[in-house]
What does this fold into?
Amino acid sequence: MPKAESLQGSIDLLVLKILSRRSRLHGYAIMTAIQNISGEVLRVEEGSLYPALHRMEEAGWIRAEWTTKDNGRRTRIYELTAAGKKQLGEEESRWQSVAAAINRVLREA
Amino acid sequence: MSLRTRMANVFRGARVNREIDEELEAHLEEAMASGRDPEEARRALGSPLRHREGSRDAQILTWLDSLVADAGFGWRQLKKSKITSAAAILSLALAIGACTAAFRLIDALLLRPLPVSGAERLFVVARHGLNMNGAPGTFDGTEYPLFQRMRATVTDQAELIALSYDARMDLTYGSDEEMEKVHLQYVSGQMFGSFGLRPAVGRLLTESDDDKPGGHPYAVLSYDYWTSRFGKNPQVVGRTFRMGDALYEIVGVIDQPFTGTEPGTVTDIFVPTMMNEGVTHRDWSWIRVMAQLKPGITGESVRAKLQGSFRAFQEEQAKNLAGLPKQKLANFLNQKIVLEPAAAGISAMQQDNRPGLVALGVLVGLVLLIACANVANLMTAQAAARAREMALRISLGAGRARLVQLVLVESAWIALLAAAIGGLLAWWSAPFVVGRINPPDNPVRISLPVDWRVMGFALVLTLAVTFLFGLIPALQASAIKPTSALKGGEDPHSRRRLMNALIAAQVAFCFLVLFVAGMFVTTFERLSHQPNGFSAERVITFDTVARTPQPPVFWNQVVEHLKARPGVEAVALAGWPLLDGNGWNGFVAVDGGPPSQALAYFLGVSRGWVDAVKIRLIDGRDFVESDAYPGTAIVNKAFARAYFGGEDPVGRSFERTADHTHFQIVGLVGDARYRDMREPITPTVYVPFQSVQAGGGLQPISKGTYIVRTAGANPLALAGTLRQEISRARPEFRVSRVRTQQEINDAHTVRERLLAMLATFFSAVALLLSGIGLYGVLHYSVLQRRREIGIRIAVGAQDSNIARLVTEEVFAMVMAGAVAGLALGMVSVRYIESLFYQVKATDVGMLAFPSLAILGAALLAAVPVIRAVRIDPVTMLRVE
It folds into this structure.
């Protein structure tokens, strides 16, 4: 049973989105990418990144493999699967509708 | 990640952990490479242990993981107490093995559907009513003309198939000297098509191979016979064999796995019913009729139609039975046709052994329950010892379900190991028992496949057993309240109460097993030691056939020839040996009166036979050379009682009503068993072996049995020589079967012997298990109360007081169990009454044996415990 994570909803969306743009990233790169693109506004809590990645891998949205770096150390890189692409579409539209709803409330209340 | 990977990851947990760690390391490295402070990065990432747990749960099946962990833990627990574990496993293995073996037998003989198409729509057409002796019963013998009529009536709703009773026949593929015995069945040609059978080679028979009496000398072999006799040679098609006067051609072989319709025998050869002369006889009941209902047809509609044609047939038959008493005639007409399910085939073997096998199944089931109670007690005692461990687990947050699982997994270990050993036991013992069902010269052949049915049974049994003995201790273990457990137990007696209840149940079952076993043993003793009225000692019998019927003088010549052999004491001729299962009966009328109510049995014997089998001649004389059937007769005392009010009938006469033949009684002999070991001795008429034929002169004879009493103690020592001597004296004669009279007698008690043997074995097991169980519980109660005992001794209690303290509760349970077992026994033996002979459930001996045995076992179990009580109170109190 995957344990409930408070950031779960948005962290999934962000990781999937990053991986759809740039394939084959390792965990640290995913984290820095999110920070950089968001202009340092969004910080991924490092402690929850890896359980999230492993959970998404288990769900079949992303695929992982070990590669060897130039210095001989192994690193685990991730890429999006077909199921992950579909999931990304769903998560994106869910986010859009939530964001639109919140905007509407901010505008009209 | 797939389910499979997650499952696999359970078994490489170390690697999963390592990979998670490695990935985290790589992360930190990246962080440092991008210039972050190592300490800060490590702190930001958090505890690797937490990551590991979170990620690990995602990558493996947690429930499987916990199961594997529990299995490992359970295994270590078992190894910790090797002797108790071994005792538990072995006792359970014995019980599981016995149950599985019993199931194999019951399944193979009674339950397994025949491997034919539409087996579930197969029924046997039988008639139910009062038989000639006025006893209710079901009889499945049918006359062929009746079969033809019935078949025509229901042709749209069901296919009727005629099958003769499986018989051992003599046939030869070459000369007469090469006669061999085969299991042969006459069957309707349409059987092969209706059963959906296919040929392995050649062709099978069809309806058109079975429509003209004597017109189709074709034979089909079974796969089994083809393999054992011809080594699967396909050239067998077209070969011929001779049986009686007819020459048969083999046309094909039935493909596997069909072995006939009579479980217990494997039919070798099938020939068309039309080749049996019985097809034209209106008074020969020599076939069984099987009905295969068409899909969607109800049995009742078919039954009603069959009843109609049966009634019409019986009414026509009754015209030939004018001499029959009125009541018997009414019984004859009022029989009811019944359709009995026959998906598993039908055979005498099934009918004879059904109650015995079921009784045996129940006995082994009880032994299994006893073993389960033992193991449950063991687990409860262990659980008590582990109460603190459990309390600790609960304090650390283990859920109730998790603890139940922990204990159940341990039970499963015991059950699985026991099942594995038990499986071996069943694999070996089922054929062993089968080998003892029948007399050695005609062994039972039951295919005992180990397939999904047997495996499934063993699996379900193992699971059931796990829950049976594991669930209560597991629930108890999980119900522990940590605060009270750590303090020393909330209700220290609750566990003992459970164990006591189990002991009572165990004793009840054990009593029942011993009680039934005692009845079986007594039945066997009484049956095999009852007087038969004749002497089987040193008697050997030679069933002899002549190629063509021979004049009686030749048959007598052989008698004289054998008499002259060394080592031979007496020789005589008879139609068949006493008690070999053959019977010839009829109603008789005395002094022109009405026919008798009771049937008399007839047997043709030669001069000197009474002497040879040592039946006491009470009055009159033996036959002389000139006596011939019909004319003179020797009767037994039962006959004199039945028809002459017990007066000496020598000199009187009677008539055999069936053929109106007259007999003058020339001798009165003592009662001897003719047909059956259990019935009262039947009124019996011995008539001369030779008979006068219609046109005058003596009738040639085609078969008979030479009865030889030898001088030496072992009659079989002469079997080979005498067999050759018979053919040497008359080359036309051939011995088809050699048996000692003792063998023939013993065949009547084969079932009783087997039941007595197995029941004795199982009662020994039950007693042993119960003894161990009692010991365990007594031992536990001493351990549990050792502080109390220590205090009592310290304040001056005597050894005897203490012994009474620890044993009285258990002995009360034993008494309660014994009473319950007695009640159970009284009720249940009624269902298997048919298996007993001259034994009453209320016999004092029957009750005394199990009571004493259990009391003895209980005392034996108590001795070491009572001795253990004598411990220095100081040591006892200092333990904690």
